[in-house]
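Exercise 7b. C-alpha coordinates:
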Protein backbone atom coordinates (compact mmCIF):
# COMPACT_ATOMS: atom_id res chain seq x y z
CA UNK A 1 0.00 0.00 0.00
CA UNK A 2 1.45 3.31 -1.06
CA UNK A 3 1.86 6.26 1.27
CA UNK A 4 -0.72 8.30 -0.69
CA UNK A 5 -3.35 5.57 -0.32
CA UNK A 6 -2.72 5.40 3.41
CA UNK A 7 -3.25 9.14 3.75
CA UNK A 8 -6.49 8.97 1.74
CA UNK A 9 -7.84 6.11 3.87
CA UNK A 10 -6.88 7.92 7.08
CA UNK A 11 -8.58 11.12 5.97
CA UNK A 12 -11.72 9.17 4.97
CA UNK A 13 -11.81 7.47 8.36
CA UNK A 14 -11.51 10.78 10.20
CA UNK A 15 -14.30 12.32 8.13
CA UNK A 16 -16.56 9.32 8.86
CA UNK A 17 -15.82 9.52 12.59
CA UNK A 18 -16.57 13.28 12.63
CA UNK A 19 -19.87 12.71 10.81
CA UNK A 20 -20.93 9.98 13.24
CA UNK A 21 -20.12 12.25 16.18
CA UNK A 22 -22.23 15.08 14.75
CA UNK A 23 -25.16 12.73 14.17
CA UNK A 24 -24.98 11.48 17.75
CA UNK A 25 -24.98 15.01 19.13
CA UNK A 26 -27.89 16.02 16.91
CA UNK A 27 -29.91 12.99 17.94
CA UNK A 28 -29.23 13.43 21.66
CA UNK A 29 -29.85 17.19 21.97
CA UNK A 30 -33.68 17.05 22.23
CA UNK A 31 -33.48 14.36 24.92
CA UNK A 32 -30.48 15.67 26.85
CA UNK A 33 -31.75 17.02 30.19
CA UNK A 34 -28.67 19.17 30.51
CA UNK A 35 -29.36 20.76 27.15
CA UNK A 36 -32.98 21.39 28.06
CA UNK A 37 -31.88 22.80 31.40
CA UNK A 38 -29.60 25.26 29.67
CA UNK A 39 -32.52 26.48 27.55
CA UNK A 40 -34.69 27.01 30.62
CA UNK A 41 -31.92 28.83 32.41
CA UNK A 42 -31.39 31.00 29.37
CA UNK A 43 -35.09 31.83 29.17
CA UNK A 44 -35.21 32.49 32.89
CA UNK A 45 -32.24 34.82 32.64
CA UNK A 46 -34.03 36.81 29.97
CA UNK A 47 -37.17 37.01 32.11
CA UNK A 48 -35.15 38.02 35.16
CA UNK A 49 -33.55 40.83 33.20
CA UNK A 50 -36.99 42.08 32.18
CA UNK A 51 -38.18 41.82 35.78
CA UNK A 52 -35.21 43.87 36.94
CA UNK A 53 -36.09 46.58 34.46
CA UNK A 54 -39.71 46.58 35.61
CA UNK A 55 -38.66 46.72 39.27
CA UNK A 56 -36.36 49.66 38.59
CA UNK A 57 -39.18 51.54 36.85
CA UNK A 58 -41.55 50.81 39.73
CA UNK A 59 -38.96 51.99 42.27
CA UNK A 60 -38.49 55.23 40.34
CA UNK A 61 -42.26 55.76 40.24
CA UNK A 62 -42.56 55.17 44.00
CA UNK A 63 -39.70 57.59 44.62
CA UNK A 64 -41.39 60.27 42.51
CA UNK A 65 -44.69 59.85 44.38
CA UNK A 66 -42.97 60.12 47.76
CA UNK A 67 -41.13 63.26 46.71
CA UNK A 68 -44.41 64.82 45.58
CA UNK A 69 -46.20 63.81 48.78
CA UNK A 70 -43.35 65.20 50.88
CA UNK A 71 -43.71 68.56 49.11
CA UNK A 72 -47.49 68.52 49.63
CA UNK A 73 -47.03 67.69 53.33
CA UNK A 74 -44.61 70.57 53.71
CA UNK A 75 -47.03 73.04 52.13
CA UNK A 76 -49.98 71.74 54.15
CA UNK A 77 -48.00 72.38 57.32
CA UNK A 78 -47.02 75.81 56.07
CA UNK A 79 -50.58 76.95 55.43
CA UNK A 80 -51.94 75.54 58.68
CA UNK A 81 -53.64 72.24 57.84
CA UNK A 82 -52.18 70.29 60.72
CA UNK A 83 -48.90 69.10 62.11
CA UNK A 84 -48.05 66.17 59.87
CA UNK A 85 -44.72 64.50 59.22
CA UNK A 86 -42.99 65.55 56.03
CA UNK A 87 -41.76 62.04 55.27
CA UNK A 88 -43.53 61.16 52.02
CA UNK A 89 -45.55 58.44 53.75
CA UNK A 90 -49.22 58.06 52.80
CA UNK A 91 -50.79 58.19 56.27
CA UNK A 92 -54.25 58.88 57.67
CA UNK A 93 -53.14 62.33 58.83
CA UNK A 94 -51.77 63.25 55.40
CA UNK A 95 -54.96 62.13 53.67
CA UNK A 96 -57.13 64.02 56.17
CA UNK A 97 -55.09 67.22 55.75
CA UNK A 98 -55.38 66.97 51.97
CA UNK A 99 -59.14 66.46 52.25
CA UNK A 100 -59.49 69.53 54.50
CA UNK A 101 -57.63 71.70 52.00
CA UNK A 102 -59.66 70.32 49.09
CA UNK A 103 -62.92 70.93 50.96
CA UNK A 104 -61.99 74.49 51.89
CA UNK A 105 -61.07 75.34 48.31
CA UNK A 106 -64.00 73.70 46.52
CA UNK A 107 -61.83 70.98 45.02
CA UNK A 108 -62.97 67.38 44.42
CA UNK A 109 -62.10 65.24 47.44
CA UNK A 110 -59.27 62.87 46.52
CA UNK A 111 -57.03 62.58 49.63
CA UNK A 112 -54.20 62.15 47.11
CA UNK A 113 -51.07 64.17 46.48
CA UNK A 114 -50.96 65.46 42.91
CA UNK A 115 -49.25 68.10 40.83
CA UNK A 116 -52.52 70.03 40.69
CA UNK A 117 -52.88 69.96 44.47
CA UNK A 118 -49.32 71.15 44.98
CA UNK A 119 -49.91 73.97 42.51
CA UNK A 120 -53.05 75.01 44.41
CA UNK A 121 -51.11 74.99 47.68
CA UNK A 122 -48.28 77.07 46.25
CA UNK A 123 -50.52 79.59 44.49
CA UNK A 124 -52.93 79.94 47.42
CA UNK A 125 -56.14 79.82 45.43
CA UNK A 126 -59.02 81.89 46.77
CA UNK A 127 -61.02 80.13 49.46
CA UNK A 128 -64.25 78.62 48.18
CA UNK A 129 -65.70 76.35 50.89
CA UNK A 130 -67.58 73.23 49.90
CA UNK A 131 -66.90 69.94 48.17
CA UNK A 132 -66.24 70.29 44.45
CA UNK A 133 -67.69 67.99 41.83
CA UNK A 134 -66.05 64.66 41.29
CA UNK A 135 -66.32 61.04 42.36
CA UNK A 136 -64.76 60.25 45.74
CA UNK A 137 -61.62 58.12 45.55
CA UNK A 138 -60.93 54.92 47.47
CA UNK A 139 -58.59 56.91 49.71
CA UNK A 140 -61.40 59.30 50.63
CA UNK A 141 -63.87 56.51 51.33
CA UNK A 142 -61.47 54.66 53.63
CA UNK A 143 -60.72 57.82 55.63
CA UNK A 144 -64.41 58.70 55.90
CA UNK A 145 -65.32 55.17 57.02
CA UNK A 146 -62.61 55.26 59.68
CA UNK A 147 -63.89 58.63 60.96
CA UNK A 148 -67.50 57.44 60.90
CA UNK A 149 -66.56 54.29 62.83
CA UNK A 150 -64.69 56.30 65.46
CA UNK A 151 -67.54 58.79 65.87
CA UNK A 152 -70.05 55.96 66.21
CA UNK A 153 -67.96 54.37 68.95
CA UNK A 154 -68.04 57.71 70.77
CA UNK A 155 -71.84 57.79 70.36
CA UNK A 156 -72.03 60.48 67.71
CA UNK A 157 -74.64 59.40 65.18
CA UNK A 158 -73.44 59.40 61.57
CA UNK A 159 -76.19 57.20 60.16
CA UNK A 160 -74.73 54.52 57.89
CA UNK A 161 -70.98 53.93 57.85
CA UNK A 162 -70.78 54.25 54.07
CA UNK A 163 -67.60 56.24 53.38
CA UNK A 164 -69.56 59.30 52.24
CA UNK A 165 -69.38 62.80 53.71
CA UNK A 166 -73.12 63.27 54.02
CA UNK A 167 -75.07 65.76 56.12
CA UNK A 168 -75.33 63.46 59.16
CA UNK A 169 -71.59 62.85 59.14
CA UNK A 170 -70.92 66.59 58.92
CA UNK A 171 -73.31 67.25 61.81
CA UNK A 172 -71.65 64.52 63.88
CA UNK A 173 -68.21 66.04 63.20
CA UNK A 174 -69.44 69.48 64.26
CA UNK A 175 -70.92 68.04 67.45
CA UNK A 176 -67.63 66.30 68.25
CA UNK A 177 -65.64 69.46 67.52
CA UNK A 178 -67.96 71.56 69.69
CA UNK A 179 -67.75 69.12 72.60
CA UNK A 180 -63.95 69.07 72.51
CA UNK A 181 -63.38 72.79 72.02
CA UNK A 182 -62.29 72.56 68.41
CA UNK A 183 -63.26 74.98 65.62
CA UNK A 184 -66.58 73.79 64.17
CA UNK A 185 -65.86 72.93 60.56
CA UNK A 186 -67.95 69.83 59.87
CA UNK A 187 -65.21 68.46 57.66
CA UNK A 188 -62.51 65.83 58.02
CA UNK A 189 -59.12 67.25 58.95
CA UNK A 190 -55.79 66.17 60.42
CA UNK A 191 -56.60 67.56 63.91
CA UNK A 192 -59.94 65.72 63.88
CA UNK A 193 -58.37 62.42 62.85
CA UNK A 194 -55.57 62.83 65.41
CA UNK A 195 -58.10 63.44 68.21
CA UNK A 196 -60.28 60.50 67.19
CA UNK A 197 -57.25 58.24 66.95
CA UNK A 198 -56.27 59.09 70.52
CA UNK A 199 -59.76 58.34 71.79
CA UNK A 200 -60.51 55.14 69.83
CA UNK A 201 -58.65 52.33 68.11
CA UNK A 202 -60.41 52.89 64.79
CA UNK A 203 -57.61 54.90 63.17
CA UNK A 204 -53.88 54.22 62.98
CA UNK A 205 -51.93 57.43 62.47
CA UNK A 206 -48.73 55.77 61.26
CA UNK A 207 -50.34 54.34 58.14
CA UNK A 208 -53.18 54.93 55.74
CA UNK A 209 -56.57 53.71 57.01
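Sequence design result:
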Amino acid sequence: MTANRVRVLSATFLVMCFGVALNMIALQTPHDPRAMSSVVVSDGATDTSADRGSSAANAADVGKKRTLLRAVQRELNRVGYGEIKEDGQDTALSRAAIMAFEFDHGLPLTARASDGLLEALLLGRQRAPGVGAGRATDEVRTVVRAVQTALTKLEFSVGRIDGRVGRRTQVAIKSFERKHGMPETGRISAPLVARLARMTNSITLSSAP
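Instructor comment: Confidence is low (pLDDT under 50) at residues 1-45. The two ends are 97 Å apart (CA to CA).
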